[in-house]
């Protein structure tokens, strides 16, 4: 055997090692895939294996022997990408473009091409064309839409949230999200549409637009609640639709804060804070000097925050940041000989008290704004907590008392204007709050009576359904009706009344706040088959319209620039959530 064959294709194959330590030169194995082959003193079969299974390695061989590596082949040590790998990269690019709202023409960027070439080891790789990426995004979107359509078909009850807003390019859009609990007690929340509207946002037009969305997805008979903000046109549109209206709790809470701040005498100190923030926000030189002082005081370099009336909790964030940077701010203003008045100790104490009042409101707002857990049943307990926090004490200053009084009065009015019946039923159906301690004792009995009536309506609906479906023999039909009317358990022998079902549910131990009501009901759905259906209906409703607010945000922050660049034909495909094919296209 000559030296060329001894090398066995540059070390890509080796002789088989026998147990006694000797080499069996009639057998060789591939060092890449460990495949074993017969050695016939010819390398043609081995070369064929490399070309078929390891093309990257075979590219450096010529007729079974060594060939001098070209510069391009030297850069492509791993060989050219296979078709499967290329398709995966194209799919990943399409998901990235859609999910992160990247312009499609980014596939013409030489820098992106070089990055993928370096990462893949294929210096001959070429990015897909724009039309290819757009086609992949369309396919991803259609596939995910079909999945969502099947989920909606299986859902018995669906809650809807809607919101109108205007983009930076002055185009009007309607956003809508769907929320429901499936048979396995998993909560689903995703976007249905972000569609452009050209007509004026009168109540009738808004109602027609919302109705068109439900008809497009064929869910108009499954909608239970419609969540909107406090805009008059959407509130009026909700009255025109046959759905329960649930005003956004977060909007109500933030409006109560705004009203309370205006009526409590904090205007002077807040105006002073805004001037200090503006001094550093509007001047890069001032901001740079503040950062230098932050470093000198061994604090984190961070900019101050300006409060905005429409930005939730921004007043709290402003006064918190000012208090954290009290020393750097004073040092910077003193160094500049600025005429900006500094906050006095009395004013800083007033801000500290205000921060303590606003912090619970921030926590409640963020808690109720979640869309991946039950929130509707938390509204009344959260309000009860806020009313308790806002009770005046003997140590409160005049401003604090005025704030607390104004807050409680305004929030109480907004609470009465909300859908209290729906919120009370949802609270009772949450095992964490079913003791209804957030309600006066005089109102608790009404809630259980309401649930009793709901169970009766559900039973009657099932009986009527059994009477009107099919042409079964009369005896069998009567027997099925009897069983439906006489049992609320998973056994045919045990007869249990509606009232005893509620009593049994009420006697269950209340769960801890950290436990998930979805898991609780999932484990007991066979014990309460009818009550479980009602719980799915009420607990799936979100407490706020925050899901709609997030439709055009990435990582929770609205990106106005991207709104301006969205094409109206593709804006409906903006990303909502983590699934890439819910991602929509930015042109």
From TrEMBL:
It is found in: Nucleus. Gene3D superfamilies: Zinc finger, BED domain-containing (1.10.10.1070). Pfam families: Dimer_Tnp_hAT, zf-BED. Residues 502-574 form the HAT C-terminal dimerisation domain. It comes from the Eukaryota. The keyword Thylakoid does not apply. Keywords: DNA-binding, Metal-binding, Nucleus, Transcription, Transcription regulation, Zinc, Zinc-finger. This is Zinc finger BED domain-containing protein 1-like. It comes from Kryptolebias marmoratus.
């Amino acid at each position: 055997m000559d030296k060329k064959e001894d090398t066995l294709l540059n070390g890509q194959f080796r002789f088989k090692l026998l147990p006694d330590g000797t080499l069996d030169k009639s057998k060789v194995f591939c060092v890449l895939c460990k495949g074993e082959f017969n050695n016939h003193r010819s390398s043609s079969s081995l070369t064929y294996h490399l070309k078929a299974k390891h093309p990257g390695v075979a590219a450096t061989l010529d007729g079974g022997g060594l060939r001098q590596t070209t510069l391009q082949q030297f850069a492509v040590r791993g060989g050219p990408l296979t078709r499967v790998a290329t398709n995966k990269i194209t799919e990943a690019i399409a998901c990235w473009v859609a999910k992160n709202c990247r312009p499609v023409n980014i596939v013409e960027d030489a820098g992106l091409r070089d990055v993928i070439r370096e990462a893949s080891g294929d210096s001959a790789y070429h990015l897909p064309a724009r039309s290819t990426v757009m086609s992949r995004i369309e396919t991803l979107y259609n596939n995910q839409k079909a999945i969502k359509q099947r989920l909606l078909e299986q859902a018995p009850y669906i809650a809807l949230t809607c919101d109108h807003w205007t983009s930076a390019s002055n185009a009007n859009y309607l956003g809508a999200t769907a929320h429901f609990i499936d048979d396995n007690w998993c909560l689903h929340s995703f976007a249905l549409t972000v569609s452009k509207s050209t007509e004026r946002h009168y109540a009738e037009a808004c109602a027609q637009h919302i109705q068109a969305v439900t008809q497009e997805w064929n869910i108009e008979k499954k909608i239970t609640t419609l969540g909107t903000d406090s805009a008059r046109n959407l509130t009026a549109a909700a009255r025109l639709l046959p759905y329960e209206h649930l005003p956004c709790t977060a909007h109500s809470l933030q409006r109560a804060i705004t009203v309370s701040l205006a009526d409590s005498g904090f205007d002077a100190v807040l105006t002073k804070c805004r001037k200090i923030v503006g001094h550093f926000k509007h001047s890069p030189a001032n901001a740079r000097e503040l950062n230098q002082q932050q470093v000198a005081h061994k604090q984190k370099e961070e900019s101050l925050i300006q409060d905005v009336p429409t930005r939730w909790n921004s007043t709290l964030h402003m006064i918190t940041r000012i208090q954290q940077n009290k020393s750097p701010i004073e040092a910077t203003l003193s160094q500049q000989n600025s005429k900006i008045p500094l906050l006095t100790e009395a004013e800083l104490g007033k801000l500290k008290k205000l921060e303590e009042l606003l912090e619970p409101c921030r926590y409640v707002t963020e808690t109720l704004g979640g869309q991946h857990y039950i929130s509707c049943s938390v509204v009344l307990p959260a309000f009860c907590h806020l009313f308790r926090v806002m009770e005046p004490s003997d140590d409160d200053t005049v401003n604090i008392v005025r704030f607390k009084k104004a807050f409680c009065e305004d929030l109480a009015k907004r609470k009465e204007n909300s859908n209290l019946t729906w919120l009370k039923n949802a609270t009772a159906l949450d095992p964490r709050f079913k003791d209804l301690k957030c309600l006066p004792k005089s109102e608790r009995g009404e809630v259980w009576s309401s649930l009793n009536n709901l169970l009766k309506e559900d039973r009657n609906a099932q009986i009527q359904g059994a009477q009107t479906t099919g042409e079964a023999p009369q005896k069998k039909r009567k027997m099925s009706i009897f069983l439906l009317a006489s049992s609320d358990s998973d056994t045919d022998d045990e007869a249990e009344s509606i009232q005893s079902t509620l009593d049994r549910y009420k006697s269950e131990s209340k769960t801890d706040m950290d436990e998930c009501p979805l898991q609780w009901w999932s484990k007991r759905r066979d014990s309460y088959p009818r009550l479980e259906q009602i719980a799915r209906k009420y607990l799936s409703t979100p407490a706020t319209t925050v899901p709609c607010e997030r439709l055009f945000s990435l990582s929770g922050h609205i990106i106005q620039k991207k709104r301006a660049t969205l094409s109206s034909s593709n804006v409906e495909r903006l990303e909502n959530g983590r699934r890439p094919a819910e991602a929509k296209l930015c042109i």
